[in-house]
Amino acid sequence: MSHDLDTAPFDYVIVGAGPAGCTMAGRLSADPGVRVLLVEAGRTTNHNPVVDMPAAVPYAYQRNSIQWGYVSGPEPHLDGRTMDEKAGRIVGGSSSINAMIFNRGNPLDYEGWAAQGLEGWSYADVLPYFKRMETFEEGPDQWRGGDGPLQVSRCRAEHPLFETFLRAGEQAGHEVAKDHNGYKQEGVHIAQAFVHRGLRWNAERAYLRPSLDRSNLTLLTGGFVEKVTIEDGRATGIVVNGPLGRRSVHAAREVILCAGVFGSPKLLLLSGVGDVDSLRSVGVKPLVHLPAVGRNLENHPGVDVQFATRHEDSLTAQIGTLGKAWLGARWLLTRTGLGSGNIFEAGAFLRTRDDATMPTMQYEFLPLTRRLVNGKLVPVPGFQFWMDLSRPESRGRVSLTSADPAALPSIVFNHLDVEQDVVDLIAGVRLAREIAAQRAWDGIRREEMSPGADVVTDGDLRAYLKVRLGTSYHGTGTCRMGIGDDAVTDAQGRVLGVEGLRVVDASIMPKNVTGNLNAPIIMMAERISDHVLGRGFLAQERADYYRAGRDV
User: Which helix (H) or strand (E) is 52 found in, with range?
Assistant: First the structure.
């Protein structure tokens, strides 16, 4: 790792060492003819057990020192509530603090991208990149890859409540999906995760560490990027404040923003790219009028549905004081046991209405419940469904509060602005209750803790959503790819109206996907890296996939 920024100009300057940034740095630096600088505001993981141990994910979520500290709100339809927004400020970015759940999204998500005019983003286009990036432990097939840098495993799901969840799902009329990242996503399933040999397999481990011995790749940690320098309509570099002080760094070919759904639009706005009037109102000199920057913010909002059990029936029986000590010792010595799993080891993708062509709701099942006590999540005997809305219609925005680069942006998701989102979430709660009511739970299930047995009517559930709605931290769309007036980037992530400037992260997704975002972000970076290097794209692969209503 080097902090030498002066020996020669860099061809590519990448801002943000998250999933996209690590992927871009690894792929671009494979070309020995280019010099790449990767700038990260946070620090390296340095074999931190909070990051490396999959079961330590609740602690990674709560560790403020490795997060940006974003806050969304006040939310106008949630009685002005604010919510913490988790985003990793560490090498690996959010792939170093997330729940490691591997979901690609539904094939129809990408068919929808292509239908919006984004050439090259259909399912047949993206499938070869999903396959290139992974090594799936169950082996390759027409949907899955077998020799990529990302290790993907099937969760062990050894606690008996995971099997109970699957049986209850079947009793409620849902299939058990053989591979929800293969032919058919819909149904209940045992989850897949970015976990290998008991370790979190984040983007740093997969893409960056194997590349750091290359002489043409420089990683700068502790580097806070203040803006992109733009001269005569072209991005020429960045201004960064870090270990060597505040300085300008030149990019001979491109500046590539991989700073995330909040950070990338913020940097564009600070650099003078955005709505002219909005920029002037906060004291930023406008350079390029691009009104869509920061708009079209989308997310996966959701709530918990929780049931009590006896202590001995829940995972809480294994994570008392002695249990945690044993868990940690076994993981440190053998990388096995409860510490080697991510806890979120089963789930479902289900439709809440018959007219939907693909799942509208994602469920993550946990064999315990959690309560917030003095700002800390504590385990409680029970089981729970975290459910979130896969394709909400409500949209928000990210905007500047100040011309000061250190000031956090304003983030408003505008959750529940559209009535259909409310209707679908209410239906999602009822669907979770239906699964919990099946006979598989008899003798295990006790009282409903949340929303509670007295929350029955649509009105009751609307009130519950206002008070308890949360987020899966799946923001997208603030620098969306597109061909209309609401676009910020083109189909290769190039910022409209600025030469030599590109965005590659969740912010360029034209519409959110049905699932977690880590895998789709890395897929996008894999594909766009080929474009940056001037290579041809991988040939389309046409594997079949399930469509509701067509296949019965």
Answer: helix 49-52
CA angle 352-355-361, nearest 5°? 25
Quickly state the pLDDT bin for 1 (edges 50, 70, 90): very low
- Beta-bridged to residue 361, according to DSSP, are 350, 389
Length of the chain: 552
What are phi and psi for residue 542, nearest 5 degrees? Answer: -105, 80
- Take residue 403 and report the two structure tokens written for it: 């011309």
Q: Is the pLDDT of residue 339 over 90?
A: no
The answer to whether the peptide bond before residue 58 is cis (omega within 30 degrees of 0) is: no
Residues in contact with 11: Cβ distance below 8 Å, sequence separation at least 6, in sequence order = 34, 35, 36, 251, 252, 253, 254
Report the C-alpha dihedral over residues 203, 205, 208, 214, rounded to 10 degrees. -160
CB 528 within 8 A of CB 494: no
Q: Do the bridges between strand 245-257 and strand 501-503 make them parallel or antiparallel, or are there none, so unpaired?
A: parallel
| 218 three-state secondary structure | strand
The pLDDT score that the predictor gives to residue 177 is 97
Give the span between the Cα atoms of 312 and 304, in whole angstroms: 22
Catalytic residues: 474
The C-alpha atoms of residue 398 and residue 114 are separated, in whole angstroms, by 25
Q: Where are the alpha helices (DSSP H) in 348-457?
A: 419-436
Cα distances (Å, whole numbers) of residue 310 to 434, 445, 467, 474: 21, 8, 27, 33
pTM: 0.96
